[in-house]
Amino acid sequence: MKSLNQIAASLTNRVLVYGPPKSGKTELVGKLAQKYNLLIFDLENGVKTLRKLPDEWQSRIFPIQLPDTRDYPIAAETCNSVIKGVKGNICSEHGKWNCPICRKSGGEIEEICLNELNSEWIVVFDSLTQLSNSIMAHLTRHQADLYKPEWSDYMSQGFLLDKFLSNVQQAPYNVCCITHETETKMEDGKSKLVPVSGTANFSRNTAKYFDDVVYCNLVNKKHVFASSTDWSNQVLTGSRSGIRLEDQDEPSLLPFFDPEYIAAKSKNIGEVSEKTKTTSRLQEILAKAKAGK
Length: 293
Hints:
CATH class of the largest domain: Alpha Beta
CATH topology of the largest domain: Rossmann fold
Largest sheet: 8 strands, mixed
Number of strands: 12
Helix content: 25-40%
Radius of gyration: 22 Å
Number of helices: 9
Structural class: alpha/beta
CATH architecture of the largest domain: 3-Layer(aba) Sandwich
């Protein structure tokens, strides 16, 4: 049986970026194109924000537009199909997975197999908010426009979101999801801002599917980004690799996906820990010596 330090660290990562509208989420993710190829499943026309990036970066951004609406909730079907990682295609006209119409008519399609992507790629879903809405619209598509979802509808929505996010959690490729914020009561009874994903109860636990959770906001005309677990008692954030986005002079998501950076970070943490142990042992020896006198 291998111990933890004998097991190779994963070369892929799963990051969740969330915050209120217009808080810099999509642009922060888009700047990963400085080093990585981004395959973006765009449910909200968010890639328009990335037109301001340098041309070289834009050349590494590959958007897949999903024309998702209340009357045409295609994202629910396509995202849950593509996330499985199997080979298939998405048509440009309908955003549909293995579209029989476009396959027959010879329409433009994109061949996709997420499991074949290497560590130089990051798969982006923008956003979980729209995907949640799409799933509910899909489940209630045969109901009247003013139909109010019932408990069973929310249960089914949670099942499909869990199915999608479980695939994200175990994906052998890099994944970054974007979503918005909602305030909900946690198990300790206190209110906290959490990433949106379906119902308030489901949103409260969405972070468990990701390695890192990043919060974005605009405060006093200045963008604020944070990722450490202890950043705020009112906002859910956290990083399994110990990266503190709020301490960076120029906040970037690159450290979350760069194995060399993460390895160096872990080494530094280990060295600090060892120094702390050494200092404690010296203090203990000095204390005993002083007591002996």
